[in-house]
Amino acid sequence: QQTILAAQYSSLPQGGLLIYLTCTLNPAENEQAVGLFLKERPDASLIFQWESPPHNPAHEFFWAAVLQRNS
Fold first, then answer.
1. pLDDT at 71
2. What is the helix (H) or strand (E) element at residue 6, kind and residue range?
3. pTM for this one?
4. pLDDT tens for residues 8-57?
5. 8 A C-beta contact, residue 9 and residue 57
6. Which of 17, 15, 25, 12 is nearest to 53 (CA)?
7. Can you say whether the dihedral through the CA atoms of 51, 13, 1, 38 is positive or negative?
8. Hey, which of 4, 30, 35, 41 would disulfide with 63, CB 3.0 to 4.6 Å?
């Protein structure tokens, strides 16, 4: 996950947005991955975070974060 985030983030211009989306509610792939990424990149900030409800009747689960590249 860190490799994917770093590769995509490196191509963002200043002020650009990166949407990180997974199809799992696994904290290691979601909150922890984004938390580690933000810790390593002081020019990045978390704008928004969302997850599908755990009791989704369709049994489909998604997690998303919008990250921004600051100056």
1. 78
2. helix 2-9
3. 0.87
4. 999 999 999 999 999 988 999 999 999 999 999 999 999 999 998 878 78
5. no
6. 25
7. negative
8. 30
